[in-house]
Design a protein that fits this description.
The structure holds two protein chains of two kinds. By secondary structure, chain A is mainly α. Chain A has one domain (about 15-55, about 75-290): MetI-like (MetI-like fold), CATH 1.10.3720.10. Chain A has eleven helices and no strands. Chain A has helices at about 1-15, 20-30, 30-50, 85-120, 125-140, 140-155, 155-185, 185-195, 200-235, 245-255, 260-290. The longest helix of chain A is centred in the middle third of the chain and has 37 residues, at about 85-120. Chain A is elongated, with a radius of gyration of 24 Å. Chain B is α/β, with parallel strands linked by helices. Chain B has a domain at about 15-105 and about 185-270 and about 285-349: P-loop containing nucleotide triphosphate hydrolases (Rossmann fold), CATH 3.40.50.300. Helix content of chain B is about 30%, strand content about 25%. Chain B is built from 13 helices and twelve strands. In chain B, helix 4 packs across helix 5 (about 140-150), helix 4 (about 125-135) packs parallel to helix 7 and helix 7 (about 170-180) runs parallel beside helix 8 (about 200-215). Chain B starts with a helix and ends with a helix. Classes of the chains: A mainly alpha, B alpha/beta. The interface of A and B includes residues 186, 187, 192, 201 and 210 of A.
Chain lengths: ~290, ~350
Amino acid sequence: MSTAIALAASASTSGRRGYWSGVLKRFSRDPVAVGCTVILLVLILAAIFAPYLDLADPYKGSMIKRLRPVGTEGLPLGTDEQGRDMLARLIYGGRLTLYVGLMPVVFAFFIGAALGVTAGYVGGFVNTVIMRVVDIFFAFPSVLLAIAISGALGAGIVNSLVSLTIVFIPPITRVAESVTSSVRSLDYIDAAKASGGDAFTIVRVHVLGNVLGPVFVYATSLTSVCMILAAGLSFLGIGVKPPEPEWGLMLNTLRTAIYVNPVVAALPGIMIFITSLCLNLLSDGLRSAMNVRD
Amino acid sequence: MSETDTLRDNRDRGGPAQPLVLAQNLTKHFPIRSGLLNRQTATVHAVDGVSFAVHKGETLGIVGESGCGKSTTARLLIGLIELDDGTIVFDGDALGSAISLRDMRKSVQMVFQDSYASLNPRLTIEETIAFGPKVQGLADPLGRARDLLGKVGLDPNRFAHRYPHELSGGQRQRVNIARALAMSPRLVILDEAVSALDKSVEAQVLNLLCDLKDEFGLTYVFISHDLNVVRFISDRVLVMYLGEVVEVGPVEAIYGKQAHPYTASLFSAMPSMDPDNRTMEPPLSGDPPNPVNPPSGCRFHTRCRFAEDVCSGAKPALATFGNHPDHLAACHMHDPASGHSLAGAEASA
């Protein structure tokens, strides 16, 4: 008798596992995705806690110690063209770079998902208006659009955030719209309508859960593009201004030193490469982990 | 169902003699838009002037080929698509004036064919069943959901927290039935609800449907293309062809003698179970005509063996056939005044 009760209890608890714990379980079985998550976490934590890491002042240069190679004593990653400690600058640079690389995608995710779900669920005239406006933005290459908006608004962190957000709203809107329209035509939406649910409730309960997952994965893959674009804006001088440490800007100022000390000059680029690669592999891992139907 | 059963339901207004649903002249034309300006270039006549009644406590079977408008009729009945023309009267209340769509939806529910697509993959089945009662403000939606899971033969302790992909097709369809029943409906529309299941599971679900009908005093509209299943579960049968009703009548009358040539060929396509009584009539050949341009007159005349000039000229009206007053068919052969050469012979037979 007691075993029967225990069996029933274990059956009911095993049935209670949620969707997200299943995703987490599948994700943890993917070594590549887990490795990338660890690298990204180290980068993000280092950026956040940079002031407590006992690093050199990233702004303080030295005319004597310019362009020291990697491995110099006391300067593990050498110095830049103004004699500033590269290790400190790369870690402090992660703050701005990750901020400018991630925040536009976060903003664009909320705005684009809202627009896309509205267009996809309401359909008809609303869909036409939203999607045609989005199409106009698609006519411009994303780099050009970011440069144009940033150029019009002027240099600065806030302006590059705004311009990058505008760049990423259209692709996210389009993905959200296409996923929403395919979900909307499924029978469970009809069943929910037949139960008397209003549009808002149906979207909240039945649409968002099935739409936000794929859109989130897509947005994750955009963060690497966004980081590269943000770095590109800084490189062109319309993003972050010197002497702020930022990987794109550092790549720009160090390019003059590429013949003198190529390894140091490449370091910011390597950081951008590692981060965007990890973000891409992370979004791949998320995509397969979120697929319930295996 | 007996008279006392219907009277027990305090939502019953018109008494057992009043049809639960009276559909009159239901019409739905879907526009086909194409070209640069999205202009309407053609119209699909999905449902064209369909009228029928669903009596309280009965099961009305709707049969017909794919694309004949069965599912569109179902979706019109439950208000998932808007009527172009026609009226629906629910227990004496005309939809849109005496009763709102929202109120009617509390009393009419539907079970869909695709058991997977009709369950939200991100919700546990308990949450799926509880959704309707929750939005309608009924008491204790989750308790109700667990109770109904038990009623459809799924142990709530084992199944309530499962996701649709963890269930088999038959189990999922039981969940769909529980979801429909959670609203305490009076009418349940079963749109090919058992067609996707294999035969043994289909039989279980059909028996479950019969039990639930008795327990909750339900009325069914049962849409299927499987004539054996329709015969098993239905009290009356409605035959549709290209968006129109061609024949309607009690199940034993129609299964005994088909009045319309289309119904006859539909039944002749059913394999005979008796080797001494083999199917001798040739089955119907070809596809139904395009509903964008339905044939004039009787829509079946392009495939009918008995078609004559009168059939393409005038549309036959539904008229009584044989000795059963409720057995109606729309065919010129049964109308002596139509001028069809077989009309007299059929009438005297």
